[in-house]
Amino acid sequence: MAGSPATNGGTGTGTGTGDWTPGSWRSRPIRQCPTYPGSAAEAEAGLRRATAELGQLPPLVHAREVERLKASLRDVARGEAFLLQGGDCAELFDYCRADAIESKVKLLLQMSLVLVWGADRRVVRIARLAGQYAKPRSSPSEVVTLPGTGEKREVPSFRGDILNGFRLEDRELDPQRLVKAYNHSAATLNYVRAALAAGLADLHRPLDWSLGHVNDPALKAKYTEAVRFLRDMLRFMHTIGADRSPKLDTVDLYTSHEGLLLEYEQSLTRLMENPTPYHSALDTTTTTTATNDNNDKNHDNENGSRNGGGVAGAGISGGKRTEYYDTSAHFLWIGDRTRQLDGAHVEFFRGVANPIGVKVGPTTTTSDLLGLLRALNPSREPGKVTLITRYGASRVGELLPAHVAAVEASEFGSRSGGEGGGGGIVVWQCDPMHGNTRTTAEGIKTRRFGDILAELRETLAVHARLGTYLGGVHLELTGDAVTECTGGSGGPDDADLSTNYTSFCDPRLNEKQALELAFLIADHYRQ
Ligand code: PEP
Ligand code: MN
After folding, report:
1. Residue to mutate (ligand 1; options 436, 473, 506, 509; most atoms within 8 A of CB)
2. DSSP 241
3. Are 378 and 384 in contact (CB under 8 A)?
4. Measured on CA atoms in the order 124, 128, 130, 132, is the torsion positive or negative?
5. Per-residue pLDDT reduced to its tens digit, 218-272
6. What region does 488 belong to: left with phi over 0, alpha with psi -120 to 50, or beta?
7. Could you give the CA distance from residue 374 to residue 380 in angstroms, rounded to a whole number?
8. Are strands 470-476 and 427-430 parallel, antiparallel or unpaired?
9. ipTM of this model?
């Protein structure tokens, strides 16, 4: 198969719990792997060109940022902070525009303001942004009706801008899109950093977070109450001189995407110094010789030692701790279709230092769930793994309790303490979107606001009953006034969906629905 792992020069050992290298995933069974067009040799050469180019480009994120996020997720695992993650289902290269980026960032900031006010704890923000370009598909091809002639034709499915384009003439996979994805991620991230540095999130001017789009009087009243509360608090801080910290002008916003295309993720994986002080427990691990595959030459790891995770190249030398960071984003998650314990995706992500998410759904067995935690977080670091649960409103009550109970009864339970003692190890996050997708009579893919809220409420209730902490939510949303999900106050119904349906993948909450959901979560905590 053109572009398959076996043809890409990987030499990783990848057996059992053995050594990890950035290329060890290549010897594992892989799902959703792209096949590039042309002969095997042509496909291989095209892919090599693209990954060699990526290997020379600078990291998109820094180890220091990744470690700062990990520290924040540790607080989430321990019940001291809340995680808000959201963005498009499929980000398009076309969304790399100032207004689209700003509206999404503003919406996440608005929601987090509401959550800080409601939940009375710090909010960690992660955007599905600056890299969410690859989509898993149930079939590599689909039958479409050609406009004009009405002729039916089988074409490759749209798999996200990193692989092919949505327009029928762009459906052929093109390896140069890997480089384009990097460039669009870089431009998006650059604008996010610039906008935040310029004061987009300046809490001294909370009313600049335009309330214009909030038409619903009840919603507007609640939001205004939150803003008034924050303004009073800031005035008080100003009076006592506590607002002179630069922290009030900017906020942290981290990036994330599904780690689906391992060629891309490997090319951006770099051995970097971990800037945080290391724990003595990690000092005592064995040292062996690093093994390198072809791509590792890009990664500057010829002289590395290793740490206890069996990770070649990573380790401690000269008093410095080096680790592999996937620098394509701060946070990566493994999707519901690629989380096989013996598969390539779990193999790759077990070796990187980033915090990792895993989708957990109706087909996840409890033994797989524990296997995933053991593979991805053998040292039981609090906050290292986020379990993103997505069962659907009708099934969450039946399925989530057994998953929570299994984790609680294991060495990852919240009473087992983890490294450094005290509190939870996993982050439980609710994705109330992916189990609640339905198709209307007209064939439009949509979700009901009521189902999304119902899954979220039931998830909160299950965690409350079992004494665990729901640490966050994972949402598909956009800052634009789309009509893709039905319901919410004044929201569209089935008949209105085609008014402004612009998603090329899953339906997203619009700004009003997203903000309303944030208020409803806040309300839950304030009761
Ligand atoms: C997604 O988050 O867009 C997605 C495809 O989710 P899942 O892997 O849970 O189906
Ligand atoms: Mn989706």
Report:
1. 506
2. T
3. no
4. positive
5. 777 877 887 788 777 777 777 877 666 655 556 789 999 999 999 999 999 999 9
6. left
7. 8
8. parallel
9. 0.99
